[in-house]
Amino acid sequence: MIAGWENMSSSQKQEAFLAKWASGEGIEFAGDEARASYQYRAGLIKDAVQLKKTPDRVPIAPIAVFAPIMLYGYSAKQAMYDPHILGKACLDYTRDYDVDATMIPPMVMHGPVLDALGYHLYKWPGHGIKDEQGYQFVEKEYMKAGDYDHFIADPTDYWFRVWLPRTHSALEPLAQMPPLYGTMELPMAAPWLCTLGAPPIQEAYKALLEAGRIAFEWIQALGPYMGQILSSGYPMYAGSATKAPFDVLGDSFRGTTQLMMDLYRRPQKVLDACDRLVPLMVGMGVGGAMANNNPLVFIPLHKGADGFMSNEQFEKFYWPTLKKVMIGLADNGCVPVCFVEGGYNQRLEYLTEVPEGQSVFIFDRTDMAKARKILGGKSCIGGGFPVSLIITGDAQQVEAETKKLLEVAAGDGGYILSIGCAMDEAREHTLKAFMQAGKKYGKY
User: Fold this and answer.
1) Does pTM surpass 0.90?
2) What is the CATH architecture of 5-63+237-441?
3) CA distance 183 to 135
4) Residue 333: exposed, middle, or buried by beta-carbon count in 10 A (0-12, 13-18, 19+)?
5) pLDDT of residue 295
């Protein structure tokens, strides 16, 4: 814990946490040069977050998932089933492309863990899709309309006894368990404990423990590669992740179609459920950031884009609880990094409502000149480069587009050069052209 933390304001906590992260405290660097490189790169990002013009250039941090794997000739399935392939590809990518902040290897989940649990929420390489494809979300109505009251009253109980059994076939028997609260007094503990002895529930817990064992072995194998990335002088672009409450409901629980109908059929239930999720999402982001000594909290925004809902619906259902999550993260010294999928050209004014200099918005298809005009001097912005050009363009086109983007978006500070989506595919010559153009034209 940082000295005097409890008495600091949110901006002071952010400054202290960012400074600690940027210093590389706790990292065993390969040498003085690696330490200086890390502090330089993390310093670029720190200055951008705090809307400062760095003495050098804009930071360059393309967000990637499977692209580094593909660049080195491996399939997505190989990376998901062999942590050494995943780790080495991430390490080589980070060094060869010289990014200022690199991908988080555990974002490519370990396939055997999903196999052990009978995971339903995604299709992954070799399990429903081709070995070469990135994983795909399977959206269904995992939470029924009649479940709202249970979810709102006790989301943890609902998560464990209802949602997990519906989304993991190995955990289906957990639906037979009574609530944990029966353990509070000795005479009431026996029925709950007896339930644990039922063979199907024993098997479910065995599956959960087996998945945990596999995951622990995976992270033990992957950890040294992550250590090498940091010790070589490269920070990672996030310390943890969380989500907008509305997206949690729409993605993993109600499903998009059902949730959008809920806006008309049971709007108050939606509002209450989103409010109930706020402290959980704040705690999720803060906990990971503190554990990893990295204040940047990644928040992918899925269902708030232009055209998905009206401004009135965005203002009522989506933005208020997202804003609460962002402010809650900032109050704990963290930096919310919103990955703004789709276009937010109709939403930019809302984004000015968060405290100045405490948030980052990485844009996908938003007009970057408009984003700079509205958010410049208020929040750090980033992104805006089309991934399609990395995949289908040539080096000259990429250089020209990068130069154009920097001219309209970089301004006098508070900008991070990034691709407008999380890359699952890339080509060596165009991605390197993007990096080189960023360093050439992103100078202040």
Assistant:
1) yes
2) Alpha-Beta Barrel (3.20)
3) 40
4) buried
5) 98
